[in-house]
């Protein structure tokens, strides 16, 4: 038995580097929620899914009940307890330092009736997380009768088609559409922000210059004279090309908050399951923000300067704090 636990411990040590400071956040959240008990499996708190988990620790007969965060990104299952395992586990943190926990084998159940032995990382300071190592063992049907399955499945690539073109679409991949909606009146900064352009990467100068000319030709940006100004911050993409981004961090700090409609991911999952569709499609909407027009009185705050000429956005800009919320509305 101990040999099996030792083998599992070695494997976990290799994967522990993937467990980051997110675990610290989960630990604090579970402490705040420790007094709550989810009435049904799969309940969402703050847009996260929690399941009730029963643990029967070694040498005990009565199981203990926990509300664990379902985290498919976690490579291991962690449960807080005072029990000490035989194998030490050290979790490295991105911010430095480490968290010392131990590994032991316990009996785990999602129903309180069906049990299976499984290695659990535990300690008094451990977060309460149900990881993919346990989830991939099978599936579970929640109170609504929906089947939750995890793991890796083989996919027949012959049935997958990628549409690179459709009749009626523009051939120019950089072309941006315009939604037939009213010009959006967005929150204006509570104070003027004027930051000078800082030195940029020399390799980015020519590509960014061409991008601004293309944006001006399409009407996405236009020349202006504004008391506002934010610096351009070119970002190199994975394919070696450059992305035009403006550093709106200071502008974001003086912009009033806007209520956001956050989707309930659990309800979306239920809705997809209820449709029982055979085929699903994904659509990559490129430059979606740029298709949303801005009201003239809101544009000056988005000004930036390039090679001595000041421009501003006529469409919803990338990098501004409220662009995602407005685009989803």
Automatic annotation (TrEMBL):
An example Gene Ontology biological process: proteolysis
Organism per entry: Hirundo rustica rustica
GO function terms (MF aspect): aspartic-type endopeptidase activity; RNA-DNA hybrid ribonuclease activity
Group of enzyme by EC: hydrolase
Enzyme Commission number(s) of this protein: 3.1.26.4
Domain Reverse transcriptase: 216-329
Sequence similarity: Belongs to the beta type-B retroviral polymerase family. HERV class-II K(HML-2) pol subfamily.
Keywords: Coiled coil
Residue ranges the record marks as coiled coil: 2-36
Annotated protein name in UniProt: ribonuclease H
CDD domains the UniProt entry points to: retropepsin_like (cd00303)
